[in-house]
Description:
By secondary structure, the protein is mostly beta strands. It has strands at 2-6, 9-12, 17-24, 32-38, 45-50, 56-58, 66-71, 76-81, 90-99, 105-109, 113-118. The strands form two sheets. Strands 2, 4, 5, 6, 9, 10 and 11 form a seven-stranded mixed sheet that branches. A four-stranded antiparallel sheet has the order 1-3-8-7, with no helix packed on it. The radius of gyration is 14 Å and the shape is elongated. It starts with a strand and ends with a strand. The model has no long low-confidence stretch (mean pLDDT 97).
Amino acid sequence: xxxxxxxxxxxxxxxxxxxxxxxxxxxxxxxxxxxxxxxxxxxxxxxxxxxxxxxxxxxxxxxxxxxxxxxxxxxxxxxxxxxxxxxxxxxxxxxxxxxxxxxxxxxxxxxxxxxxxxx
Length: 119
């Protein structure tokens, strides 16, 4: 299984970035997809999640600025980040999660992509 993130980089405050997470080795449509982030000295936190059915939820800190989406035909999840702030600086990780009817859980992570916002 591989989750490969891309799209991170350096952007000025107020700017935008679009992160992509390309998945392989899993039946992508069977997995909830999420983006987490970890800032220096802080714990990893959930940024946004999209379920297999397309339902979404967001951290309060990013609501109205970030949008998560998925394209099951491309096995790819996206995170559109607008109005970026210095407090969004972190390594962003892609996560794929599945819980089967028998309660078995499968959890996969990407390697992370750095997002830096200059003020």
